[in-house]
Amino acid sequence: MNYFTLLKEMSYKNKTKLFVRLNQNNYSYEDLFGAANCLGDQIQLRHSVVLIYSNNLLFQVTAFFAAMKSGNIPILSHYSLPIESLKKMIIKNQIKYILSDQNPNFDFLVKVETIPEAFLLTTEVEEEQSTTSTICMGVLSSGSTDVPKVLFRSYESWAGFFPTQNKIFSIDASTILFMHGSLSFTGNLNAILSVLYAGGSIVLTDVFHCKTWLNEINEFQVTTIYLVPAKLKAFVKFIHEPSKSVTMIFTGSQLLFSSMALTLKEKFINSNIILYYGASELNYITYLEYKDLLTNPLSVGKPFPGVTVSIKEGFIYVDTPYHIEGIDLPYTVYDRGYFAENQHLIFLGRQEDVINKGGFKISCIKIEEALKKIPGIKNIAVIAYQDDKRGNEAAAFLVTDGKVKKDSIRSMIKDTLMAVEIPKRFIFIHEIPLNDSGKVDRKKLKALL
């Protein structure tokens, strides 16, 4: 079983039903199956890993299914990846073939084959990576490293968990899900496939234009929104009247602070709001619903059914049957955290977000939570940096209303943070830079230090 087979089954059940609206163009289940089937017939490879390279959403989704139809293993590439990083990733993972809707002038290509609506590119890799028969797809990590990791998955490693996650996120055949961004990001691809599994519909755009988002949500009576917290924060500024059609908002990759949860509830009055914690190497791990979001700062909730979480030496370890190939359980991505008395998992951040000062652990996320409560601070990002004299320190980047001053911030923060936790640097900027996945761009922030 693979996702092309699933699309085929769903196209028989839902022929003319909207599967996905891409940048204001509608495609039924039958439309997408037909396009993927046709492109798949043109791919003469078998049992190869195929990197899909395109910034076109329609091509991304079509080629993903088409590669499976032809018996290959698709990986959707981050289109914005620097060419040198792309080359390193291809060589490191022995990826011999690229499927693209363009003919890029890469210096690591040895052959270009033109097929209807696409190009099949052969790289300089001579020997392909061996894969097991259970693998049906690959995904790329979206972490902070220059060269993303390739993570291989079986069909069951996601699809086996869809009944559980769809129940919690209230995804079914009546769902109309709104989302933004490339399908190369794991959360987006998982969301689309979970809706396919349920027989629902998707409204997808790669245009970052909040007024257009609002028009699409209202016109199509969207029931469910999936956006990372940074995008939700930008979006709510454009909502002037409460939206009634949305009944579920689920979000992850960053913490959703209580003030933002309250604002979302005011704008989407009929919605439940769920914050999840997950990892590309694993799957969904824990979740927290709206009522608990308000009273449990820094919490990412309790484990999903069937998932076990433990803490060892301050690191979060996870045991789940729904993980990538080739890892041992329990597994950690070296996120730090601990369990509160109510058994909620408290997320302290990625390993690089926790500063060790003389054995005292300082959480950048805890600092952010404290700073967000100060009137006049509109947005905040706290990162660790290396000070030549003091060693590891915290720097706070602030977007303010222009009235709040650095001295008053230092004074007010003393009520909620210990002296050792107070950032050594406060830097005022016009906006917090985001990367393509909607996460804080830490590289750009560090360049400002």
UniProtKB/TrEMBL annotation:
Protein name: Long-chain acyl-CoA synthetase
SUPFAM superfamilies named among the record's database cross-references: Acetyl-CoA synthetase-like
Any one Gene Ontology BP term: fatty acid metabolic process
Family annotation (InterPro entries): AMP-bd_C (IPR025110), AMP-bd_C_sf (IPR045851), AMP-dep_synth/lig_dom (IPR000873), ANL_N_sf (IPR042099)
UniProt similarity note: Belongs to the ATP-dependent AMP-binding enzyme family.
Domain AMP-dependent synthetase/ligase: 19-312
Cross-referenced Gene3D superfamilies: 3.30.300.30, N-terminal domain of ligase-like
GO terms, molecular function: medium-chain fatty acid-CoA ligase activity
Key words of the record: Ligase
Residue ranges of every copy of the AMP-binding enzyme C-terminal domain listed in the record: 366-439
This protein's record includes keyword Ligase: yes
